[in-house]
Amino acid sequence: MTRVLVGYLPDERGDDALALAALVARQGRTPLTVANIYPPGWPTPGPGRVDAEWLGYVKQQARAALDQAAARLGDTTPADAVHYVVHPNRGSGRGLIQVAEKEAARLVVIGSAPRGRPGRIAVGSTADQLLHASPVPVLLAPRGYAAAPPEAFTRLTVAYRPHRGARLEVAAAGRIADWLGVPVRLLTLLLRPPGPAGGPVVADLMRRQREQAARDLAEAAERAAARAGVSAEVAEGVGVDGALRHCDWSPGEILACMSSAEGPLRRVFLGSVSGKIVRVAACPVLVLPGAGPR
């Protein structure tokens, strides 16, 4: 049985990730695994008693973190639908990848790094490891998400760009949307150069890009027409932030973006545009693994 995996720390980012993962698990009717990654002992041991005491301490702290997670979940998630795991690894992201493989996780959920702006996502070391190696999709919670989570997810918006693997990635996003019971919006970001309008040459270039984007989206939407509730939209603005501001966003939105074409197949690999989307989006962001030939 597949599961939703959340990496939990006893702080704000852990609570944000837990609130998001619990909503995914409830809406997708999928069991939840809550994991805390703790540092293992050193390969070259020092005095045995000191090493044993230190390892016992960090394990105790990890279990205390999971006790806090259980208290945060309370009655919102049935106790028999939650599995708690402590796992050793010096890299928390790498440790979550190992747990994801062991638990047959469908996706991994984490929170923003502490330096993130309220309502936005900052990529820290855990996210960086996951966003360059995870074999399953990674879902990131904006900072402060736990303070006012939506009652339900309402739509999955896919930041679409045409490439050889796009069809498989859109299909993967569609399966997640079916799992959560939400419609899909295919969204292409059309980025205008900064500064003045640029005269007729720039205007003609933008017109041709707009027309091409509309054709690409129409083809992608037609291929995805086998499932209900697929819409397509072009958002135009100066930079990724400006383009995203020209879209409507519901409280229950998830924004999905694709892995870089330079990354390994069937692994998440965050590219430059997807990285900008993660950092400026005002909703949870789902990063899909690369799929198929590029």
TrEMBL record:
Family: Belongs to the universal stress protein A family.
Keywords: ATP-binding, Nucleotide-binding
Residue stretches spanning the membrane: none
Lineage, uppermost ranks: Bacteria, Bacillati, Actinomycetota, Actinomycetes, Streptosporangiales
Keyword Nucleotide-binding: yes
Domain spans labelled UspA: 2-141, 158-289
Alphabetized GO MF terms: ATP binding
Signal peptide interval: none
InterPro entries cross-referenced by the UniProt entry: Universal_stress_UspA, UspA
Protein name: Nucleotide-binding universal stress UspA family protein
